[in-house]
Design a protein that fits this description.
This protein has about 120 residues and is an all-alpha fold. It has helices at about 5-20, 25-30, 35-40, 45-100, 105-115. Helix 2 runs antiparallel to helix 4 (about 45-100). The chain is rod-shaped. It starts with 5 loop residues before the first helix and ends with a helix.
Length: about 120
């Protein structure tokens, strides 16, 4: 995507940021000379409505992608939370074992399996 006109490039950058255009929307608007059509139009509302209608599919795909990433992030956060709980429980069990709270059961089980 190359826009040689400095004013047009600045306008596309500003609109992309403000309107959160997807890359495909930006490409379509540059290819269709959207900036120049708006400048030369008597009725900018029609040009704007046409652009929104023609790029609505691109924007919906972008929104679905954003939602998917949010769901993945939430799943990852849940997995991290579960892993942290597992590690805490494991650490507590090891501490109990080391301090002898569960040693008696282990000792009994060992001598049941391997009598002296």
């Amino acid at each position: 995507m190359e826009v040689k006109d400095e004013k047009a490039r600045a306008w596309y950058e500003k609109e992309t940021a403000e309107q959160t255009w997807s890359v495909r929307t930006l490409q379509r608007n540059i290819d269709s000379q959207y900036y120049y059509r708006l400048l030369s139009s008597q009725n900018t509302a029609d040009v704007l409505a046409e652009m929104k209608q023609l790029t609505s599919d691109y924007q919906q795909v972008k929104q679905c992608s954003i939602c998917s990433r949010r769901r993945q992030q939430m799943r990852l956060e849940e997995l991290i939370k579960r892993a942290a709980q597992y590690v805490e429980n494991l650490a507590r069990d090891i501490k109990d074992y080391v301090h002898g709270r569960k040693y008696g059961l282990v000792y009994e089980a060992y001598f049941t399996i391997f009598p002296s």
